[in-house]
Write the structure tokens for this entry.
Amino acid sequence: MTEAYLKIAFINCLKWNKEEEARQWAEAVLKLEETNFYAMLVKSLSKNNIEERIDELKKLIKLKPDYARVYNGLGNAYYNLR
């Protein structure tokens, strides 16, 4: 079940730029599996406030420093912040 939710969240967030929908799907995953790192990532990436997004992504880097997608998201957030 969580895998299907994650795929929908990923598509909404990273493919269609529908942040609100992505966040809702990620939160649904976290209700079922509160430590799902990928759901935490999608939830962070879908934050509209760039400063909040950066803060969340920095926290995720501390949790899983080897996960490259978090660094990619952080770089994109800084780029959007200019």
The domain at 2-81 is CATH 1.25.40.10 (Serine Threonine Protein Phosphatase 5, Tetratricopeptide repeat). The chain has a mean pLDDT of 85. The radius of gyration is 12 Å.
